[in-house]
Amino acid sequence: MRYVILGAGAVGGGMGGRLFESGHDVVLVARGAHQAAIASRGIELRDPDRSVTLPVPSVKRPSEVAWKVGDVAVLATKTQHTEPLLAELAECAPASTPVVCAQNGVENERMALRRFSNVQAMRVYFSVTHLEPGLIELPFAPLSGLLDLGRYPAGVDEVSEQIAADLNESTFGSLADPHIMARKYRKLLSNLGNAIEAACGSRVADPFAKELWERAQDEALQCFAAAGIEVGPPDLDTERMAAMGPYRLVAGHDLSGGSSWQSLARKTGNVEADWLNGEIVLLGRLHEISTPVNSLLQATANRMAAETIAPATIRGEDLLAQL
User: Fold this and answer.
1) Residue 40 CA: distances (Å) to CA of 51, 57, 121
2) What pLDDT, on a 0 to 100 scale, did the predictor assign at position 289?
3) Is 31 left (phi over 0), alpha (psi -120 to 50) or beta?
4) Among 95, 74, 85, CA closest to 28
5) How many Å apart are CA 156 and CA 119, to the nearest integer?
6) Residue 62 dihedral angles phi and psi, to the nearest 5°
7) What is the structure's pLDDT at 20?
8) What is the pLDDT of residue 271?
9) Among the residues of the chain, which ranges form H helices?
10) How far is CA 119 from CA 98, 108, 114, 151, 176, in A?
11) What 3-state DSSP class applies to 137?
């Protein structure tokens, strides 16, 4: 099984690098200076215990890969980049190619299933930072994270089982779960705080930011109930997460900023709030449930990205006052 990682940034680069380090066949698809750095000197993975530079093959586009039977496409981009990537992938990869959605949110799988017959949903619990070309930093070791998956919309197959086995021997904990989307909806509740973290720098230390996060999750739970959506219990993976050990600094760096925070820090011009908080706004409109907090967070994150406003420069108190 060869893993073609589409979007070798933080999650994709970390996952692909660890799989390659464990002896698996991997190709990284990356862009710009990041791809150039990987091609010239390899991808560097740093964790609290060590640093390793790996000569993982890389290309700039999916069409540069000679696709074959046994390949698995792993989508590791933000959701706003999924649709054009899938369109490009469909032009060069067989429709039977398994596609793994290693992404936050719950819309990527629906997009992929329009073009590919075997779609695997992956719940990503993986703290990882990518701010410099060619460098991925992981604050947990020796277990890097939890990457559970299952076939979308439900069930598992041989592909699910094989990927889980490969990840389990590559510093990850992985389960093949037939109810994987319940895990992803539970993760979505947590990701509603991404916009708060990006704007305020914390979603728990600041009491105003914490209140915003709690209210955003309350809106989501009302929407999930109205839509009949199954959500995994809060303590679903408590023991497995505890087994990862404490968060630690990597080379003295505090890597506590999540994916949206990193997007603002890199000035990418976009964030995935439309597919996180925006998912709750959509469900609210479909089921006539008011979602003012998630609407505010979605708009705030999008404005910060469009105007290249630095992360952690908005007070939770000011956001709360707007409600």
Assistant:
1) 18, 10, 32
2) 98
3) beta
4) 74
5) 10
6) -60, -30
7) 98
8) 95
9) 10-21, 32-41, 82-90, 108-113, 158-168, 180-191, 194-200, 207-227, 238-243, 259-265, 277-287, 292-306, 316-322
10) 6, 10, 10, 6, 13
11) strand
Q: With CA atoms as reference, report the closest residue to 210 among 218, 201, 202.
A: 202
Mean pLDDT by 10 residues, the chain (323 residues): 96 98 98 96 96 98 96 97 97 97 98 98 94 94 96 98 98 98 97 95 87 97 98 92 88 76 91 97 98 98 96 94 94
Q: Residue 271 in 3-state DSSP?
A: coil
Reduced to 3 states (helix: H, G, I; strand: E, B; else coil), residue 262 is helix
Query: Nearest CA to 81 among 304, 272, 276, 305?
Result: 272
The kind and range of the H/E element at 46 are strand 43-46
Position 13, amino acid: G
Q: If you write DSSP's letter for every residue of 53-91 in order, what string do you get?
A: EE---EESSGGGS---TTEEEEE-S-GGGHHHHHHHHHT
Give the C-alpha separation, 220 to 235, whole Å.
18
Give me the pLDDT at residue 254, please. Answer: 67
CB-CB neighbours of 208 under 10 Å: 16
Cα distance between residue 167 and residue 241, in whole Å: 16
Please report the domains of the chain, with CATH numbers, ordered by start residue.
2-178 (3.40.50.720), 184-322 (1.10.1040.10)
Question: What pLDDT, on a 0 to 100 scale, did the predictor assign at position 203?
Answer: 82
If one counts every other C-beta atom within 10 angstroms of the C-beta of residue 245, the result is 12
Task: State the amino acid at position 318 in one-letter form.
Answer: D
Model confidence, pTM: 0.95
